[in-house]
Amino acid sequence: MKYISTRGQAPVLSFEEAMLTGLARDGGLYVPEEIPTFSEDDIAALAGLSYEDAAFRVMKPFIGDAFDDREFRSIIGRAYEGFEHIARAPLKQLDSNHFLLELFHGPTLAFKDFAMQLIGQLFQASLARSGNRVTIVGATSGDTGSAAIEAFAGLDNVDVFVLYPHGRVSEVQRRQMTTPDAENVHAIALDGHFDDCQARLKDMFNDHAFRDEVGLAGVNSINWARVLAQVVYYFTSAVSLGAPHRNVSFTVPTGNFGDIFAGSIAKRMGLPIDRLVIATNQNDILHRCMTTGEYRTDKVIPSISPSMDIQVSSNFERALFDAYGRDGAAVAQLMEELKSGGFKVSQGALEALREDYDSGMATEDETLATISHIAEVTGEVLCPHSAVGVKVAEEMRNPEVPMITLATAHPAKFPDAVEEATGDRPGLPPFMASLYDRPERVTEAKNDLAALQSLIRERRTT
Ligand SMILES: Cc1ncc(COP(=O)(O)O)c(C=O)c1O
Ligand SMILES: N[C@@H](CCOP(=O)(O)O)C(=O)O
Q1: Is residue 445 part of a domain?
Q2: What is the dihedral of CA 121, 125, 128, 131, to 10 degrees?
Q3: Measuring from atom 9 of ligand 1, which residue has the nearest CA?
Q4: Whose CA is nearest to atom 9 of ligand 2?
């Protein structure tokens, strides 16, 4: 399996190389040259398997010979052993044909753990073999950063720097990033919003001298391995509702477009997905784009679902690459136009996007009302991101096709919003009980590339 860049000008890489490289050297994102397909029998054979066994079968065709089967199985086993739920990603029924896929039973209580725990193990195995050292820099609106710090804290051969928007993550998210005391992890509160963090991260990758000097690696969904690990739960959940003999749809609370893009990969592999619904909060650039064809950035408006307060949606580039017939030059041109505020998607590409995706948005009031209504009717307490998904799913769903909404974080990560909606403050699980008592360690930084690069050079232990 080979990986190519969405901008068509970077070296073609193997899985392991793409995983360690992060952003392609032409500024694009790596995608598989071809998507492997599963037959109906392959999909049916996933029924009844453990999450780990299903993960092995779904991911194996993408990794080639990077890890032998024994090693890959044992990496997967270690990645998911810390999850609190035996099913890893359990389904809950909300209504006759609406299901919630709970993705928050990992160590940092968000869907990011599914990929990050795996990547931590993959990096460790690969770096131990090569003896190389890397500096991981991540950009986060709250959940990727905590998951990355949890996955890489104390590991050999790796330093992790996480840029988060100062004052724009929840207290639980911040403490998850600032309280671990391992010397190789560093939380940086950037004076800006998430898009600034992600832009500086991409600037660092595009500064080839710097990336080579520090051995820069990425664990955002820039990294194909992140997307790949997220493909698995589309299969396990659809199969448990009757796939391949029954179609299902998914609604995905969306910001950086990695999670829903993983769903589109599952569909192209042969999983019978009827609709993939993009659900956004009031930062609704993706919904506006799907509706009008105009992708124009606007001011980020802080919301009660802060992890989705994103305007420059990184993985949309991967979807555009496919929608433009895998024309790297066309994608590079669009990304150039994005630097000055946005672009218009061609009619053909928009039609291609609409073949795969529907979209909807939830206002702040609708999000709160959904948390309150669902708690009252079903007893399920949603985090605000998941509530955005449930609200949009209810609007968009076809009663004939089961709808699965991804519940992307635990409500206890966003207790203020949940308390406002329900009157009850959700508590953290016992294993995180000391979070509020631990000392915090954080560096405040300006939104300035050179200053950030100096900070990373100074603090790196490797
Ligand atoms: C809780 C939560 N829900 C939804 C999203 C959106 O996911 P994606 O960025 O993959 O679209 C994020 C951020 O990634 C998140 O942290
Ligand atoms: N919502 C994310 C933003 C970064 O997304 P990623 O999937 O590219 O890592 C977060 O919580 O940090």
Answers
A1: no
A2: -100
A3: 256
A4: 220
> What is the C-alpha to C-alpha distance for residues 370 and 378, in angstroms, rounded to an integer?
11
pLDDT digits (tens, 9 = 90+) for 406-462: 999 999 999 999 999 999 999 999 999 999 999 999 999 999 999 999 999 999 985
Determine, yes or no, domain membership for 302.
yes
Residue 286 in tokens: 């993706």
- The catalytic position among 60, 112, 267, 344 is 112
Query: Which ligand is closest to the CA of 253, given by its number?
Result: 1
pTM of the entire predicted model: 0.98
Of 6, 51, 68, 56, which Cα lies nearest the Cα of 31? 6
What does the alpha-carbon distance between residue 231 and residue 118 come to, in Å, rounded to a whole number? 13
Question: How many angstroms is it from 8 CA to the middle of ligand 1?
Answer: 27
Q: Residue 242: how many CB atoms within 10 A of its CB?
A: 13
Q: State the total domains in the chain.
A: 1
Domain CATH for 392: 3.40.50.1100
Match 């041109």 to its residue by tokens. Answer: 333
112 is catalytic: yes
Per the structure, the complete domain to which residue 229 belongs is given by 91-106+224-422
Query: Is-contact 181 219, C-beta < 8 A?
Result: no
The pLDDT assigned to 36 comes to 98
Q: Which atom of ligand 2 is nearest to the CA of 258?
A: 7
Q: What residues form DSSP beta bridges with 94?
A: none
- By CB atoms closer than 10 A (0-12, 13-18, 19+), residue 87 is middle
User: Under DSSP, is residue 264 helix (H, G, I), strand (E, B) or coil?
Assistant: helix
Distance, CA of 199 to CA of 27 (rounded, Å): 11
Q: State the DSSP code for 296.
A: E
Residue 123 located in a structural domain: no
The verdict on residue 71 lying in a domain is no
The identity of residue 139, as a single letter, is: A
Which among 403, 371, 397, 401 has a CA at the least distance from the CA of 385? 371
249-266: per-residue pLDDT in tens? Answer: 999 999 999 999 999 999
pLDDT (0 to 100) of residue 104: 98
349 three-class SS: helix
Average pLDDT over all residues of the chain: 97
Helices 347-356 and 316-323, axial angle in degrees (round to 10): 110
Ligand 1 contact, 257 CB (< 6 A): yes
Atom of ligand 2 lying closest to residue 198 CA: 4
